[in-house]
Q: What sequence folds into this?
């Protein structure tokens, strides 16, 4: 397989009237993160990498041709069959990281060739994970031992292990989804299964690894953000809502009604947020939200298969890839994004391994 090519483009951010104010980068020195600059990849090359939870493999989809190649996760004789969960691409290292729940570790591949680089130990119950854009920290949630393992993606060494807040664990909470801010200063972990009406998003300082804030949200929350604005979008499947938080103060800004909201992805320019209706059976599988005015754009878009789960777009935001999970599932559906409203339209499908779960763009 070809080597992935990389190109960087600076995103121009414009200040205008009130409708643009959310997209003016914050330069307040009191802000925990300075959003005064940012870059995104604009490469025409790249791969969509899918973790096949039921096959012990990753599938690599060429985002232009939709051709698929498959690579097994590493395992020694006598070890459990790997259980790939989520995928993270770290551009600084040109590596792809895949959580292996069965072996309590993260497998590391070289992007492009998909040769195995090695593995890094994590905790029991590896689930969601995310890295900062600078490639300094990879946060891996472990939902059996209720911790988060922080890994250096360059040295492949464990930096530290962060415990889930004890009071939330006592109420049944477990770490689930995770995302980090664009400058690697703040991390956000969703804690689900908490007794009562709310689950929580916990904010951490990535230098001290201490909790710096939290917010109650709906049940079964996931998280997404974009560097162009100050908001954290939190789809909450079991509450049929997307909660919008100020990601610095953790104050609630809005609630947007969306059925079964689960999967979470921002367009590269930050102006659209996509969420998947996981329990909807494929009907109204994808919803598009305008991040300027917090409104749903048009109707939900159908998908041909049930359990629409995780979402990623290519670097140009011209295609959206959606994994369909389930023990017997082996499909990723592909949507074009051609219109000015940013709504996806069904384009194609590919066959991957069993139970496609996490999905990421490498390029």
A:
């Amino acid at each position: 397989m070809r080597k992935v090519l990389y190109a960087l483009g600076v995103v121009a951010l414009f200040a205008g009237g009130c409708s643009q104010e959310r997209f003016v980068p914050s330069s307040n020195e009191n802000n925990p993160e300075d959003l005064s600059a940012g870059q995104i990849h604009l490469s025409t090359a790249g791969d969509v990498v899918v973790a096949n939870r039921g096959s012990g493999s990753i599938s690599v989809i060429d985002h232009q041709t939709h051709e698929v190649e498959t690579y097994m996760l590493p395992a020694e004789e006598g070890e459990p069959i790997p259980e790939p969960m989520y995928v993270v691409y770290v551009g600084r290292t040109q590596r792809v990281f895949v959580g292996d729940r069965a072996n309590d570790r993260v497998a590391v591949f070289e992007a492009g060739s998909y040769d195995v680089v090695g593995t890094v130990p994590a905790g029991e119950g590896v689930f969601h994970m995310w890295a900062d854009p600078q490639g300094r920290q990879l946060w891996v949630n472990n939902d059996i031992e209720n911790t988060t393992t922080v890994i250096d993606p360059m040295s492949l060494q464990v930096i530290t292990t962060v415990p889930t807040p004890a009071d939330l664990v006592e109420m049944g909470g477990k770490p689930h989804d995770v995302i980090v801010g664009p400058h690697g200063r703040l991390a956000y972990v969703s804690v689900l299964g908490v007794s009562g009406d709310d689950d929580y998003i916990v904010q951490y300082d990535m230098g001290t690894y201490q909790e710096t804030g939290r917010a109650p949200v709906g049940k079964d929350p996931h998280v997404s953000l974009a560097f162009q604005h100050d908001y954290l979008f939190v789809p909450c499947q079991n509450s049929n809502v997307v909660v919008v938080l100020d990601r610095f103060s953790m104050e609630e800004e809005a609630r947007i009604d969306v059925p079964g909201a689960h999967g979470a992805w921002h367009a590269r320019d930050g102006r659209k947020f996509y969420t998947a209706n996981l329990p909807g059976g494929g009907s109204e599988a994808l919803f598009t939200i305008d991040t300027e005015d917090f409104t749903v754009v048009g109707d939900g878009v159908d998908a041909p298969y049930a359990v629409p789960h995780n979402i990623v777009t290519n670097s140009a935001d011209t295609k959206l890839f959606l994994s369909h999970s389930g023990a017997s599932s082996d499909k990723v559906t592909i949507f074009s994004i051609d219109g000015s409203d940013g709504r996806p339209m069904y384009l194609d499908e590919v066959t991957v391994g069993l139970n496609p779960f996490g999905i990421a763009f490498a390029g």
